[in-house]
Amino acid sequence: MPEKNFVTIGDEAILNVGACVQTHSQEDGAFKSDHIVIGHGVTIGPRAFVHYGVTLHEGAVLDADSFLMKGQEVPAYTRWRGNPAAETREPLAALPVPASAAVKVAVVAVAVLVAMAVYAGLAVALAPGP
Fold first, then answer.
1. Which helix (H) or strand (E) holds 22?
2. What is the CATH classification number for the domain harbouring 10?
3. 15, 33 contact by CB (below 8 A)
4. Per the CB 3.0–4.6 Å rule, which of 23, 46, 50, 67 could disulfide with 83?
5. What is the rounded CA–CA span in Å between residue 62 and residue 34?
């Protein structure tokens, strides 16, 4: 990844060993470059090559040894393979499961309890002595 400031990588993205993310090219005597966007949860396989101007949307998978050509846009939760890479009909191992409302409420409740405990601890620590 020679020009890191031209690449945006989302949370939980996986770039496997030997993957190449290249934001530039020399074509017909001209230097060309563009940004690359790697979305949340994207997987780029071993030795896969991503060329400039590419956007991989959330959850997309680029298989091993595949070449994603310049300017391609990979839709969310699709699998791409080959040289040049093309969408396959093979399903992904599993689509992500969104957190249920109960899990979200539990996370907020724990956060509130922790905040209250910290506040109570500070109040006790800063209280004037007898």
1. none
2. 2.160.10.10
3. no
4. 67
5. 19
- Displacement of CA 47 from its chain's centroid (Å): 18
- Checking DSSP bridges between strand 36-38 and strand 55-56, what pairing results, if any? parallel
86-119 pLDDT, tens digit each: 999 877 655 555 667 777 777 888 889 888 888 8
Tell me the torsion sign for CA atoms 81, 87, 90, 91.
positive
Closest CA to 13 of 49, 34, 44: 44
Nearest to 61 by CA among 36, 83, 85: 85
- Is position 92 within any domain? no
- Residue 89 CB contacts under 8 Å (≥ 6 apart), including other chains: none
Report field, pTM of the whole predicted structure over 0.90: no
* Count of domains forming the chain: 2
